Amino acid sequence: MKYLLIIWVMVTPAFACDPREVVLGKTKTYQILFRGLSKSGQLVEIYRNEKARAWFAATTDRNGAMCADAGSRV
């Protein structure tokens, strides 16, 4: 079962997708570290929380849906 869970996490494209305002409202302690555009036109951002030494990456589509992808603690 442990290995099945790891595989599921690896193939899951995103952990949460919500309107951009909702995601940013939940992550007020994070600051933008990087912002750019993908070839497909999505906004790609990396946020970090310096105090908690944590980060996450997010993509926002043209409709305003923001998906927070894998993050970690350093």
Strand content: over 45%
Low-confidence stretches: 1-14
State the total count of DSSP E strands: 5
| Rounded Rg | 13 Å
Helix content: 10-25%
**Strand adjacency order, main sheet:** 1-5-4-3-2
Key phrases:
74 residues, alpha+beta, five-stranded antiparallel sheet, 2 helices, 5 strands, 23% helix, 46% strand, disordered N terminus
What does this structure look like?
The chain is an alpha+beta fold. It has helices spanning 2-11, 20-26; strands spanning 16-19, 31-37, 43-49, 54-60, 65-73. A hairpin with a 5-residue loop joins strand 2 and strand 3.
Quick gist of this model?
The protein is α+β, with helices and mostly antiparallel strands.
Question: Can you lay out the helices and strands and say which pair or pack?
Answer:
Elements: H1 2-11, E1 16-19, H2 20-26, E2 31-37, E3 43-49, E4 54-60, E5 65-73
Antiparallel strand pairs: 1-5, 2-3, 3-4, 4-5
